[in-house]
């Protein structure tokens, strides 16, 4: 009987924590690069390209392509969103201020940047729990810096692009155009 009670309590606790977990990218509390509380609610109805970024990575030149996408498709409803991450080889060691300055000066980044996040492992940020957790259509830890998730206007995760996939590749730009054209 004790075992049954313990099992029931455990199931209840798991169900309760799952009920408290964010259901969509819009429900996740975040901080922007300046440390201000925010969320992605302001981007509802837009197509989002969410990218974990780093300043000292072989993929860092992708910032240029991400900014070009931002400029090309912003008026049509695309928002490129950068989430600095230091999970891979310590390639984002800087403070938010240093990251912001680097992105601005080196790559002329104008798209929104956010506070550093953890994208893998037991301390995974709630946003990345939604993007790559077990209930995501694309589950599994992010493999490296510059992993990309495309989110539709309705908040559904449409595609996942691995870090080596260039932001200006036909695979990415076609998916963006399709998402922008969707009702």
Give an account of the 3D structure:
The structure is a single chain. This protein has one domain: Glutaredoxin, CATH 3.40.30.10. It has five helices and six strands; from the N terminus they run αβββαβααββα. Helix 2 links the parallel strand 3 and strand 4. The N terminus is likely disordered. It is 34% helix and 15% strand. The relative contact order is 0.18. The chain is of the alpha+beta class. It is globular, with a radius of gyration of 18 Å. It has a four-stranded mixed β-sheet, with helices on one face. Strands 1-2 form a two-stranded antiparallel sheet.
What attributes does this structure have?
183 residues; alpha+beta; Glutaredoxin; 4-stranded mixed beta sheet; 5 helices
Class from secondary-structure proportions: alpha+beta
CATH topology: Glutaredoxin
Helical content (DSSP H or I, runs of 4+): 25-40%
Number of domains: 1
Order of helices and strands: HEEEHEHHEEH
Strand residue percentage: 5-15%
Distance between the termini: 54 Å
Structure annotation, total helices = 5
Question: CATH top level?
Answer: Alpha Beta
What is the CATH architecture assignment? 3-Layer(aba) Sandwich
Q: What's the arrangement of strands in the largest beta sheet? A: 4-3-5-6
What's the overall geometry?
Answer: globular
Uncertain segments are 1-19
Radius of gyration: 18 Å
Mean pLDDT: 90
CATH homologous superfamily annotation? Glutaredoxin
User: Biggest sheet: strands, sense, closure?
Assistant: 4 strands, mixed
Q: How many beta-strand elements?
A: 6
């Amino acid at each position: 009987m004790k075992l049954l009670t313990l099992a029931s309590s455990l199931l209840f606790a798991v169900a309760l924590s799952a009920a408290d977990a964010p259901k969509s990218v819009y429900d996740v509390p975040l901080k922007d690069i300046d440390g201000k509380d925010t969320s992605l609610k302001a981007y509802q109805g837009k197509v989002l390209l969410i990218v974990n970024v780093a300043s000292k990575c072989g993929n860092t030149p992708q910032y240029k392509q991400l900014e070009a996408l931002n400029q090309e498709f912003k008026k049509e409803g695309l928002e490129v969103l950068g989430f600095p991450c230091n999970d891979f080889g310590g390639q984002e060691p800087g403070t938010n201020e240093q990251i912001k300055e680097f992105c601005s000066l080196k790559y002329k980044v104008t798209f929104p940047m956010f506070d550093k996040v953890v994208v893998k492992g037991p301390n995974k940020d709630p946003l990345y729990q939604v993007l790559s957790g077990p209930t995501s259509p694309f589950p599994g830890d992010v493999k490296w810096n510059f992993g990309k998730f495309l989110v539709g206007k309705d908040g559904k995760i449409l595609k996942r692009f691995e870090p080596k996939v260039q932001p200006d590749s036909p695979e990415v730009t076609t998916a963006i155009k399709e998402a922008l054209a969707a009702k």
